[in-house]
Queue: 2 jobs
Job 1
Amino acid sequence: MTPQSPHLQDQFLSVCSRDAAIARFDAALGPLSPREVRVPLAEAAGRVLARDLSAPADVPPFDRSGVDGFALRAADLAGASAANPVILRLTGENIACGTAPLRNVPPGEASLIATGGPLPRGADAVVMLEHTDPLPDGRIEVRRAALPGQFIGRAGSDLARGEVLLRRATLIGAREIGMIAAAGIAEVPVFARPKVAVLSTGDELVAPGQPLAPAQIHDANGPMIAAACGENGAEARFLGAFPDQAEVLETAMREALQGADMLILSGGTSKGAGDLTHRIVAGLGAPGIVVHGVALKPGKPLCLAVCDGKPVVVLPGFPTSAMFTFHDIIAPVLRRMAGLPARGVHEVSATLPLRLPSEMGRTEFAMVALSEGPEGRVAFATGKGSGAVTSFAQADGFVQIGALEDHLPAGREVQVQLFTPALRMPDLVIAGSHCTGLDLVLGPLAGAGLQIRSLAIGSLGGLQAALRGECDLAPIHLLDPATGAFNTPFLTEALELLPGWRRMQGLVFRKGDPRFEGRDPQAALARALADPECLMVSRNQGAGTRILIDQLLKGARPQGWLNQPRSHTAVAAAVVQGRADWGVTIAPVARDAGLGFLPLAPEHYDFALVRSRMERPAVRAFREALALPEVRTALERAGFTPA
Ligand SMILES: Nc1nc2c(c(=O)[nH]1)N[C@H]1C(S)=C(S)[C@@H](COP(=O)(O)OP(=O)(O)OC[C@H]3O[C@@H](n4cnc5c(N)ncnc54)[C@H](O)[C@@H]3O)O[C@H]1N2
Ligand code: MOO
């Protein structure tokens, strides 16, 4: 199916608004009524009740004692007190739980009764054992009066026969299981979980656990979407990742759809020539594709189809896009099929500390992480683009930006829709440059139960957040070219420097490359600059390493200088994969990547502490962790030099 010339593609995406997409999908799906099945009580947890459950019998089935004591007639105890006890004879019967009483309790007598024991005929009250005294002749003295009905649980008082104990559409949990069991019901009518077949498409996909060949990535969408289906009442069957081969894919999709109530694919729905899933979907059944292209960001290439009554969905390949479109558009359908109520919306308000750019023409969902600033909650954007998967873990929720806005200004108050109903603000907010060494310091804090939010917004971004008092500390490695000093020149009165560690920066190359191997850095650099075939990888403007690179280059602009990734790791990857021959990164990254390393200069990775927040327990804990001998040893072992 792949066209001869991949650049000659169909322009099949015709974008409609989110609301129009939902309306078209709903209209094609028609009413979605969940099926009912009966499951044993032991399997009912997590299911949704398909009909009202009525009690088949009274609970409790008989009047019973609520205490260990004596069943008796309240009238016998009129006027009883410690000073004036009443003496009663015993019937001789001892009513245990699970035994039906045989004897009457006539006036002037009492029967010993256990908590939960059935009340004998004649008795109308129970007194507690500790309010009585045995007499040597076998009778008892009762030291206080009793009200009729005292300590008696009446038949049907918990549940009367015929009473509705749980309503339809109730989500069954442990408490509900207890009620159903008490009512004596062994089989529970619940909604059938819709069966969803999930499959990923893409030649580049490899199952987690399998090694990656060049240009391959691990399949994130498949497991993620299957789990999200489970969270929304469905029974997902993940069928694996399939290559972009029309026949293989079509067979897999037809088989999957046969045994399922819904089919969800991801990938291959955008404009690429290899994007063939939508073509197969179009032939799976009537009416076929009803929406292809929604004015959502992320999520534009979403494809919605109904094939002979069953929903078939192609989510965008980018994991963030797949997840947002699933939750926004697919989850509500799934919940209706599963008989689950719509998910509640949980919102908090917060202020944007920074301008949040947005694309005009698409409703945009921007993920944010919350922190407590001096003037209330602030929401930092955490998005790394639709292709990223880690933004979810760092975000508390998302902000919706209307299709007609191209940005939200700094200072704007926004509503943040939370991912989870309960928001727990982090105990420690770190914003700035990330370093793998930081994870070694944070380990003990997380182990002590502190919730830590680490926002990788670069040294300068972190410094500004710290100056605004919106984080507790900012990890920075900023070189002042004028003085050659690190970090201290950038501080103000409001900040205090906590020394972190030194990271040796050096020139990296693939081991064995004779242009670098065994030379001193300056000689290697001269050799590299003299060779027009020798390709470098640089760093982004603003990075400390970039300042070092520009100092080394003295104005030279070798091949590859415009390749300016934002991280040490990306530099190492470019060299390892041969997209560049040399670059500058830090020793631990070079070592982990297996690259040759020629040391240049140590970089100071320190922490700008916000003075007004320094007494917070989590900040103190951070300083203590940094000084721990085991943390220092771990840092050294990882290739850092603690300050
Ligand atoms: N010329 C255009 N290119 C793109 C457009 C466009 O309008 N014009 N739309 C972009 C948008 S927006 C999105 S979203 C993506 C979605 O593309 P597809 O749905 O066709 O997905 P793929 O091309 O197959 O993959 C995109 C991306 O995601 C990775 N991927 C795919 N499946 C998985 C998986 N199961 N687990 C992890 N990652 C996955 C894949 O490797 C690609 O990197 O298209 C833009 N392009
Ligand atoms: O819609 Mo794409 O989902 O912008 O990333």
Job 2
Amino acid sequence: MTVSSTAPPQGPERSNTEAVRTAGLTKRYGDRTAVDAVDLVVRTGEVFGFLGPNGAGKTTTLRMLVGLVRPSAGTATVLGLPAGDPAGLRRVGALIEGPAFYPYLSGRDNLRVLARRAGASAAAVDAALSQVGLAARGRDRYSRYSLGMKQRLGVAGALLTGPDLLILDEPTNGLDPQGMGDMRELVRSLGQAGHTIVLSSHLMGEVEQVCDRVGIIANGAMVAESTIDDLRGQGHIVVGVDNAARAEAVLAKALGASQVRLVGGAVQIDGRAGDIGAINHALVSHGIGVTEIRRLERTLEEVFLELTSSVPGTNSAAKVAHDAR
Ligand SMILES: Nc1ncnc2c1ncn2[C@@H]1O[C@H](COP(=O)(O)OP(=O)(O)OP(=O)(O)O)[C@@H](O)[C@H]1O
């Protein structure tokens, strides 16, 4: 099979719009629940960011998707087949643990070894090398590669068979800023070429730059699955009024007490831009003078920190997950 620099091959099976679906996916190690009832959907053709702090359960989840770890409970479907099914695995390219390359062989020869094992053609080796920007350095020894080049060679290895799904576990981990930038650019270009990619990371800023949607995991549990825009939309609305205490009571009744609070003489509400009309209407219809309504923008980093530091199942976590559906 050759590696294409355009969209991956379309077959009847590609009419399926979901590349990955998990339901209640759980992994326990003794008393410890590494992955806790994760529900997750990756759509065909998207670059999906799987975000979470270190130890959140990203690698364990991805290992379950490729059959390296057996779930304790729940299900995972990958490319329409049960996770780990050999027919499905043949269509998945994964970089989950650094691949074992031979230090004394060139990058190209390492890929040729992998290609032989995977039944990929010699042409696929050169195509994969150029896809990851290593064509000019393919004949250098692996041991001379920078960490960033080693990681990109790992991605080339995952691309050899022209996979329908690419799973990259923290491919920028340990890279210097230049290496991180190169890897981001590579993932972005693969996404633009139509590949379906799951990219795990603990860096919000990173996935923001390359991903269409993100799933956020903390303490083994999903706290959000959403587009970047929707995550950004989860902000606060600040309302200036002539009677803050009354306005707080009116809005608490209309929207729920947990969504509304008094901050520095103004009323602050958890909500998004679309809520502003209803807020204004509620206040005006109660005869409260409104002097200002504005949204407080949060950075995605703040959203991420807020979600991952909150106990899974709290209101804010549940709200984002709900809004994303
Ligand atoms: N084989 C194992 N045996 C016992 N505990 C494990 C095992 N693998 C993972 N864990 C634990 O499960 C939890 C989730 O680990 P995991 O590696 O999936 O997280 P992660 O989000 O990928 O983090 P990191 O970015 O640090 O790799 C951690 O507490 C980890 O210590």
